[in-house]
């Protein structure tokens, strides 16, 4: 008998609601209310999410964010800023003590990300993990990166034709792993660059060239137009295959939804949280 995990497809939600939902699921799992869960979701409007440790005023062109009507939220996870628009986002919530989860953070990241790898294979794409093969590559991974998530792959992030196609981040709280990440369906590089601060136009041009070389979206790699629904089904199958689990559809109870809304209202929808750095 395969282990049963919950499966949720939340569709398009506010950025603050998406982050509140991920945090609430982590808490519900830590309290034993639900088994491990995999959730897919989208964004009701273009949203810039920044990592927990990022400094908004230093890294982000907040005037450009506001002028373009882009939503803004700080994630509970680390990593760098992501402009969520034409993408599918996933989250995985599972106990640190789960027998299939390595104690090592990097290896647990790899195990979870195997589901994303399998999903790309389901879509007929030759994806693979970015793993340093030399001391120079290892040293490069240790160097400080820009504020932009997709300028270079990190350990065990997904690469197709040498370019990063998915970016993920992880946190561990209450004995539970939360890993979530963006799977690019399409990308508007100029819009992405517009929300970051650069010391000069030359630096911005250099980053644009770098992103063209280092990042790619699914629909840049195929003649078939892959929709969010098609991607969701492919990655759902990918997680079932890689983790050897059965995903059971689940909807939150009204009481659980009230908790999500309370977390959103008191945390992720507040300037105190979003601009704390």
Task: Give a quick summary of the entry.
The active site is at residue 149. This protein is 39% helix and 25% strand.
Please, could you describe this protein's structure?
The protein has ten helices and eleven strands. It is of the alpha/beta class and 277 residues long. Strand 8 and strand 9 form a beta hairpin. Helix 1 packs across helix 9 and helix 4 crosses helix 8. It starts with a strand and ends with a helix.
CATH class: Alpha Beta
Largest sheet: 8 strands, mixed
CATH architectural grouping: 2-Layer Sandwich
Q: What is the count of structural domains?
A: 1
Q: Write out the CATH superfamily name.
A: Bira Bifunctional Protein, Domain 2
Estimate the global geometry from the Cα principal axes.
Answer: globular
What amount of the residues lies in strands? Answer: 15-25%
- Cα-atom radius of gyration: 18 Å
Structural class: alpha/beta
CATH domain fold name: BirA Bifunctional Protein, domain 2
Site (Lowers pKa of active site Cys): 164
Enzyme class: transferase
Subunit structure: Monomer.
Organism: Caryophanon latum
Please tag this protein with its features.
about 280 residues, alpha/beta, BirA Bifunctional Protein, domain 2, 8-stranded mixed β-sheet, 3-stranded mixed β-sheet, 10 helices, 11 strands
């Amino acid at each position: 008998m395969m282990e049963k995990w919950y499966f949720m497809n939340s569709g398009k939600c506010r950025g603050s609601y998406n982050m509140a939902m991920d945090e609430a699921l982590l808490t519900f799992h830590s309290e034993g209310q639900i088994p491990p869960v995999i959730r897919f979701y989208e964004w009701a409007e273009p949203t810039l999410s920044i990592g927990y440790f990022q400094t908004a005023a230093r890294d982000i062109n907040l005037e450009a964010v506001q002028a373009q009507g882009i939503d803004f939220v700080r994630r509970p996870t680390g990593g760098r800023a992501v402009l969520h628009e034409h993408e599918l986002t996933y989250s995985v919530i599972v106990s640190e003590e789960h027998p299939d989860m390595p104690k090592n953070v990097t290896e647990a990241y790899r195990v979870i990300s195997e589901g994303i790898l399998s999903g790309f294979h389901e879509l007929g794409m030759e994806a693979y993990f970015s793993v340093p093969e030399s001391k120079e590559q290892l040293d490069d991974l240790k160097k400080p990166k820009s504020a932009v998530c997709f300028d270079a792959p990190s350990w065990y992030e997904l690469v197709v034709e040498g370019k990063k196609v998915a970016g993920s981040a992880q946190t561990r709280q209450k004995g539970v792993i939360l890993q979530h990440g963006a799977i690019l369906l399409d990308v508007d590089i100029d819009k992405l660059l517009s929300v970051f601060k650069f010391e000069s136009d030359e630096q911005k041009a250099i980053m644009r060239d770098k992103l063209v070389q280092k990042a790619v979206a699914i629909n840049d790699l195929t003649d078939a137009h892959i929709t969010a629904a098609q991607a969701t089904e492919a990655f759902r199958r990918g997680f079932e295959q890689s983790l050897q689990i059965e995903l059971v559809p689940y909807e939150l109870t009204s009481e659980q939804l009230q908790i999500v809304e309370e977390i959103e209202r008191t945390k992720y929808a507040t300037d105190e949280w979003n601009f704390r750095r």
